[in-house]
Amino acid sequence: MPPPGPGGPCAERRQSLRPRFPLGRATPRAGVHRRGLHPRRTAGGSPRRAGGTRPARARRLSHPHGPPGLRGGPSVTVPLEVHQAEERLQSILKAVVVGARVDEPASRPGGEDALAFSEAGALQPPYEPEALCLLVEHSNSLRQNVDAYATNIDGFGYRFEPAIDFDADGAREKVADAMALERLAARDAGTLPSGTPPLPTDAEVTAHAEAVRQQARVEKARLESFFDFCCFDGSFVELRRRTRHDLEVTGNAYWEVLRDGKGDIARFVYVPSYTVRLLPLDKEAVEVRERVRISAVSFDTVSTRRRLRRYIQVQGSERVYFKSFGDSRVISRLTGRAFADVTTLKAADASDGPATELIHFAIHSPRSPYGIPRWVGTLLSVLGSRQMEEVNYLYFNNKSVPPLALLVSGGRLSDASVPRIERFIEENLKGKANFHKILILEADGGGTGDGGRAKIELRPLTDAQQQDALFQQYDQRNIDKVGSAFRLPPLLRGDGRDFNRSVAEAQLRFAEDQVFQPERDEFDFLLNRKVLADMGVRFWRFRSQTTATRDPERMTEMVERLVRVGVLTPEEGRHLAGDIFHREFRKIADDWVKRPITLTLAGIQTGVEDLKPQKDKGSLLGEAKRLLGLREELRAEEERLAQGRLALARRYMDTEHVPVPREEFDTWFSGQPT
Q1: CB of 338 within 8 A of CB of 284?
Q2: Burial of 64 (C-beta count, 10 Å sphere; 0-12/13-18/19+)
Q3: Neighbouring-strand partners of residue 459
Q4: How high is the pLDDT of residue 443?
Q5: Which residue in 473, 470, 472 sits closest to 395, CA to CA?
Q6: What is the tally of helices (H) and strands (E) in the chain?
Q7: How would you write 647-659 as a 3-class SS string?
C-alpha cells in the first residue's frame, strides 16, 4: 500500500468545505430549504432576476470561503443570511447520500476518486463512506457511541489462553486424546506407519506431553513478541480501536497483511475504510489451501476451491490493488491482473509488484457485500439534530425581536419612520454586540395643544423573545434513538444524570453481556480462525480482555469468605483474583492449593496431611490404578512374609527323629523295668 499523503486524499476538499455531493438532486442548490424566503429588492430597488439568479452581492456572500465575518462587514438582508447559513450546513453535511436508489443518478458521488473506482469496475457501496465519516464528525450523538464501542470492546488488551493447560488435572488425558485424533487422521490420510496402534501407551503420552510442554512455552514467547511489534506506528490495541471506529462509522474496516520472505505474517497495516472499494467476485474459482484443526494442538492442511475477490484503494492520483487474505495467486498491485508467478509479473512491468493481502471486517448486510453501519436507520435523526443545532446557533446572529420598544401614540408615523425601522432591524439588532439595543418609534402629533401631543410608552418585548434553545425534546429523542441503535445505556454515552450505583451496575452488566462480549467473541474467532491458524499457532488461543463490571472490593470479600469456609480452593480463588486485578498470577504446583483451606489447616494440626509438593501427579483414573497396584503388591508381600514365618517356625520347632524298636517303645509306657 502506498504511503498516504498528508491529511489524506480528501484533505483539500475537507478544508474548503465545498459541497460536492449534496443531499437531493444534482443541482448546486438542490438541498437548500427556502421555506419562507420571498423575493426582495436590492438596495437600488431592482427586484431579483428571474430564474433564481442572485445579484452580485449575494453570489459573493455564498462563496465557500465567505466573508471574514459579519461584524464590521457590509450589511446583508435576513433572507441572504439565512440562505448563507443553510449553505454552511450543506457544506458541513456534504457528500450525504441517503440511499443508492433515492436520488437521481446525477446525484451520485462524483470526482476523481469516484471516477477511478468506476473505471476499475468496483462495486458501488450502499452509502458513501466519506459522507458517513463526515456525519459522525459533525453529529452530537454518534461519536460517543462509537467511542464507547471502541473502548469497551477493543480497549482492554488481550491475553493468550492455552489450548491444553498442562498444569491442570486431566492434562494427560487431553494429550492422549490429541495423539489419538492425530493418529486417526493420519490413518485416514494413509500416512500412519504400519504397526502403530491408534491409541498411545502411557509411556508415549508421558514423553509427548513433556515435548509439547516445551513447544508451548516457546510458542507463547513467539506470539507475545509478534503482537508487541505487529504494527509500525502503534500498538495492536490501537489498531483494534481504529478498526472498530471504521467498522462502526462506515460498516467496513480493512487490514493490510504484510509477509516476510518466508511467507509468514510479519505486520498488520491499518487501511482507511473510505479509500477502499470491493471488486466483483472472480468468475473462476481458485484453489485455496487452509489449515483446519484436527485436535486441540494440531492442524491439517486441506485444499478447497473458492471464488475470491480483489480490492482497490484510491488515494489522490494513486490506485493500488489488493487480494483477499489467503489468496495464493500472484496479483499485480498496479493493474489487478493475475500472473503465473512473480517473474512473469516483473517481465510485464518492472516497476510493478505483487499485491498484498487484505482482511475485510464488515457489519453484515444481506443486500450488499459491503457492511452497513448499525446506526444508518437513524440517519434522519442525526440530520435533524444537526439542523436543530444550526437553528439555535443562528439565533445569536439573527435575533430580530428587540427587548424594549418605545411606543409613541396620539400621532402618526412620519414618512421616514418605515425605512428607518427596516434598516434598524437589519443592521442594528443582529449579533451579540447589539443584544440590548432598543427600538425608538417616532410619531407626529395629530392635533394642537396638549390634546394633540403624542404619548410615549416604554413596553418590554421579552415575552416574544426566545428564552432557551428550541427543539430540546426533539433532540433528546434523537439522541435516544441513536443510542438504541447501538443498544447502549445512557451511562455509557456520557449521560450520568439520575443514576445510582445499582442502576449503573445493572446497565454496565447488560452492555457487557449483550453487546460487548458477543462482539469480542466474534473478533477473537476471526483472529484465531484466520490469522493464528495461518501462523501455525497450535497451543494458544487469542482472547480479548474484558472490563471488570463488578465491584472489586465486594468481589474480593466474597472470594475471601468462600476460600475461608472451604467452598473454593486456593487455586480457584487465585484464578478469580486474576479477573479482579486484570493480571495472570504465577502457577503454584503445590498440593495444598488444590485442597480447601480448612482441610489443609486440619492436616497441619493433626500431622496427617503431607504438604510436600507431589512431583508425579496423575489423573483420578491413574491414581486409582496406582492404588490398586499398590494393594496387590501389599497382598503379595503379606503372602511372602507369611511363608517366611512358617518356614522359620518349622525350622526352629522341628526335633530330631531317632528310630526306636517297637518292643522298647512299648516298655516306656508299660511301667515294667527293662
Answers
A1: no
A2: exposed
A3: 405
A4: 64
A5: 470
A6: 21, 17
A7: HHHHHHHCCCCCC
